[in-house]
Amino acid sequence: MLRRMKAVCIGGGPGGLYLAILLKRARPDDDVAVYERNRADDTFGFGVVFSDETLGNLAAADPETYAAITADFAHWDAIDVHDRGEVLRSTGHGFSGLSRHRLLRILQDRARALGVRLVFETEVGPEDFPDADLVVAADGVNSPIRTRDADRFGPQVEAGANRFVWLGSTRRFPAFTFYFKQDAHGLWRAHCYEYEGGRSTFIVETTEATWRAAGLAEADEAATKAFCERLFADELEGHPLLCNRSIWRQFPTVANARWSFGNVVLLGDAAHSAHFSVGSGTKLAMEDGIALTQALARHPGDVPAALAAYEAERRAAVESTQRAAQVSLQWFEETERYFGRLEPLQFAFSLLTRSLRITHANLRLRDPAFVARVDAWFAQQASRQTGRDVPPTTPPMFTPFRLRELVVPNRVVVSPMCMYSAEDGTIDDFHLVHLGSRAMGGAGLVITEMTDVSRDGRITPGCAGMYRPEHVPAWRRVVDFVHRHTPAKIGLQLAHAGRKGSTRRMWEGIDQPLDDGNWPLLAPSPLPYLPQSQVPRPMDRADMDRVRDDFVRATEMAEEAGFDLVEVHFAHGYLLGTFLSPLTNLRDDEYGGNLANRMRFPLEMFRAVRAAWPAHKPVSVRISATDWKDGGFDADQAVEVARALRAAGCDVLDVSAGQTVADQRPRYGRLFQTPFSDRIRHEVDLPTMTVGNISSYADVNSILAAGRADLCVLARAHLFDPYWTRHAAFEQGYALPWPPQYCSIERYVPRFEWTPRGNEKAP
Question: Do 589 and 454 belong together in one domain?
Fold first, then answer.
């Protein structure tokens, strides 16, 4: 029989109370107490929000608490977006609101009924409970326990750029409502939702610059209330605003390297926070309580093991929510980028899909009529841009796109992927099948692997090239196949490996230097990629002239081979990209130092390629929009490079990231590189291609319909499935024409089978 456990929750917010309820419910004989430094009825804010999914979790964990909570909920399923006089409504979202005061009373009553001791107006710390088996720090976003033991938890707290204030109102809102309002100071956002009859939350948000311009830096509650009532007088319809510690704040995003030490564990906002625009921190805290209770049940009598298991299992879900919250936070910080530039319907779609959790496909299930409007609008824009008739029911990914006189039949691009299977740059049947099958598979544009402009510009001995006369007919064979048998277009990516050259093929040891047969390397500065890598020779002007001539010759050969597009590689730590990065360009001449100097040689190269390429054909450039390292090339500099490229005649920017330095620290996640494309597309007014963990047609349609990119570039998805685009068409019920040789497939109905492995889920 397990001995009686003593558990203490420090913090009497919803997270701490709910955990205490679950602990006492699971083991009634345990000693469970909650200590709160404030009064029982003292809380910040007005209402909390739960999704239908979260409610399901609460119902399973404790039906009695769930029943009490839902008895007082205000429920809605619509979201209204107000934009320049238009109201865009989307339905099927399923959210509920509840007064924070009411929620606390419900949880306090339930805890007392189960025998939990509640102690208010008492300041305590873990040291006050030396005999406790478990101490839970649920003491909020400004957690004193986390701060005091920062060396153990490794906290990271990052303040958002925007200012916001949490207000209430007596006006009832029939939907979760977003207002966007421009005044003489700037753009204001309001997040509004009802949480009980006659009471609503009314959050006002704006940029630091607008907040200061409005004179609110010194405003108290009364001044803030008066200002916001004037600003939103029409929207409030005569109702007043309410205050409850309503001061202007910057949202703190909290993360911790560790959530526990010994028998002390962080919970809720003390451990992690997520921006209010994706829901309530209360939701995360209460779900923490469910997960922690389950971990303790699986490890009875072993609290350290239970805490380790809790963190290992819960962290992934929390970090996923935080990534979505961060993207959502950034959308609201950067709303000026979209407001007035996107038409209201696309603006609303961008808002609804901002966190990347709601996709085009998911939104179609919730609100098919709204998505049908978006698709019809997008098809109309594609018709205007290309001069081709696009049916209004066409999914965004299957609309055409024009670049100069080239019309790409759909928005799916096969990413350049090195195959390391050429002989002295000459490709063979492998490349014909590799590229030809993906064009046959339905992609609108196929881009070759990185193709080097000289023998000494290769990464490995197996890299493709365009520098010998025999390379032209080898490539023309592939180009002719694509043009003869598919509607796809094909582009050639031209590059010079720079300091990342003279290495082994990927499967022999990626980035490792050759054992023998090395060739000399060039770079802006004599910095090896890895400590064991070959040291490159810093380029002089004669080297630059020679490399420029190599690019021009390769461009002319690309035209001879019949390519539709050429792409110049400025990314991933290869030669031209290393000129752009201050981490790899340490020159003190006119090609180093400030960004204008570091851009000088890459722009010279681009202009030479553009001049050598036919005027009616497009040229793209791939860049790394960030080095993923402090002090390196970053998004701000990427915008400046994009502006310079646009002025020089670049038609589309292929926006990637990283791989410049070996000690990069990328922030991975779904569509993790798309925000860079989004920013450049809107701030520079340059078409973009986006890459990075795009794995579903829902992702592609979402990116396009929201205006985050014009083309979507997929790599591994196309390696796994050369017919990825055709399968996406089938799953959406879109009739993508097959080549005549495959006409019998029109009578074929595929049957998909999936055998899950481990924790995988069937698609």
Answer: yes
Pull the structure tokens for residue 230: 């004037």
Query: Over 50: is that where the pLDDT of 762 sits?
Result: no
- Alpha-carbon distance of 647 to 718, in angstroms, equals 33
Beta strands 260-261 and 264-266, pairing class: antiparallel
Judge whether 224 lies within some domain: no
Place of tokens 């910040």: 44
The tokens for 138 are 């649920």
Q: What is the pLDDT of residues 85-130, one digit of tens each?
A: 999 999 999 888 889 999 999 999 999 999 999 999 999 999 999 9
Tokens of 261: 């030490």
296 and 417 belong to one structural domain:
no
Same domain, 320 and 436: no
Of 157, 64, 144, 145, nearest to 106 by C-alpha is 64
Please give the angle made by the CA atoms of 10, 13 and 14, to the nearest 5 degrees: 120
Contacting residues for 610 by C-beta, under 8 A, at least 6 apart: 619, 648, 649, 650
Q: Is the dihedral of CA 21, 23, 27, 31 positive or negative?
A: negative
DSSP letter assigned to residue 133: S
Domain assignment present for 246: no
Do 397 and 410 meet the contact criterion of CB atoms below 8 Å apart?
yes
Q: Are 194 and 97 in contact (CB under 8 A)?
A: yes
What positions carry a catalytic annotation? 574
Q: Write the DSSP string, 745-757.
A: GGG----------
How many Å apart are CA 111 and CA 22, to the nearest integer? 9
Q: Note if the pTM is more than 0.90.
A: yes
Q: Would you say residue 614 lies in a domain?
A: yes
**CA nearest neighbour of 206 among 228, 185, 189, 225:** 189
Q: DSSP labels for 435-474?
A: HHHHHHTT-SEEEPSPEESSGGG-SSTT-BBS-STTHHHH
Give the domain CATH number at 9: 3.50.50.60
Q: Mutual orientation of helices 52-61 and 281-298 as an angle, nearest 10°?
A: 30
Q: With contact defined as beta carbons under 8 Å apart, do 457 and 548 qualify?
A: no
307/421 same-domain check: no
Task: Check whether residue 439 and residue 315 sit in a common domain.
Answer: no
- In whole angstroms, what is the distance from residue 152 CA to residue 747 CA? 64
Amino acid at 564: D
Beta carbons within 8 Å of 14's beta carbon, 6+ residues apart:
48, 100, 103, 104, 107, 268, 282, 285, 286
Contact 452, 544 (CB under 8 A): no
User: How many contiguous H segments (helices) and E segments (strands) does the chain have?
Assistant: 25, 31
Cα–Cα distance measured from residue 751 to residue 33, given in angstroms and rounded to the nearest whole number: 56
Give the chain's radius of gyration (CA, Å): 29
Asked if residue 350 lies in contact with residue 335, where contact means CB atoms within 8 angstroms, the answer is: no
Q: Is 121 left (phi over 0), alpha (psi -120 to 50) or beta?
A: left
DSSP state of 503: B
Strand partners, 255: 156
d(CA 240, CA 132): 48
Token pair recorded at residue 352: 């609804």
Residues 556 and 422 in one domain: yes
Q: Are residue 576 and residue 449 in the same domain, yes or no? A: yes
- DSSP lists the bridge partners of residue 176 as 79
Q: Is the pLDDT of residue 759 over 90?
A: no
Q: Are residues 687 and 547 in the same domain?
A: yes
Instruction: Copy the structure tokens of residue 281.
Output: 């921190």
Question: H/E element holding 377?
Answer: helix 368-386
Q: What is the pLDDT of residues 145-176, one digit of tens each?
A: 999 999 999 999 999 999 999 999 999 998 99
Output phi, psi for 227, to 5 deg: -60, -50
Domain that holds residue 650: 413-733
Under the banding of pLDDT at 50, 70 and 90, the label for residue 532 is very high
Residue 190 lies in a domain: no
Look up the CATH number of the domain holding residue 544.
3.20.20.70
Q: Per the structure, how many domains does the chain have?
A: 2
Amino acid identity, residue 476? R
